[in-house]
Every structure is written in structure tokens, then in C-alpha cells.
Amino acid sequence: SASTAEDVTHGIDATNITAIITGGASGIGLETARVLAGRGAHVIVAARNMEAAKDAKKFILHENASVRIDILQLDLCSIKSVKQFAHDFLSRNLPLNILM
């Protein structure tokens, strides 16, 4: 039988974890962001399409209003965007525990 993200993370307390999820606005990235946020991680959704990222954040917050989730723009095809993302993330003085 297939395992869900909830099954795989059952019992995990991610309260002190910061996770950057690239492509977190849809598909597997969105599901990963949703589950990690639900386990207590501070999730940064890194997305090229900010409207989709805003919708993803609303979706996750609608399910659980107490989660810590932020969105930052990132286009992995653009070195300028990658450098700006790194600057923006570093300015938050957060640890980086998971990068997906």
C-alpha cells in the first residue's frame, strides 16, 4: 500500500525546522509544504509564479491558520533571481534545515 505524506511524517515535531520548498505552489511541492507546515516547520514556499504561491499559502492557512508559512519569489532559470532569493532568505536570519 502507498504511504501518504502524513504517514511518513507521523510523530515528527518539526517546530524548530525551517524548510524551503521550491515549486511549493502546486503538486508535490504544495503537498510537501502543507504537511511540513502542519508538523510545525516554518515553511518558505519558493515559487516563480507569485500568484500561485499566494493561492498555495491561502490554501494551507485555510486548513491550519496557526502554521508558519511565507512565500518568496524564485526562478531557478535566472541566476539573478537565485541571488535575490538567497539575499531575501538570509536577511530573515533563519536556519536552513530542509531544502527541497
From TrEMBL:
Pfam families membership: adh_short
InterPro entries: NAD(P)-bd_dom_sf (IPR036291), SDR_fam (IPR002347), TIC32 (IPR055280)
Protein name: Uncharacterized protein
Organism field: Opuntia streptacantha (Prickly pear cactus)
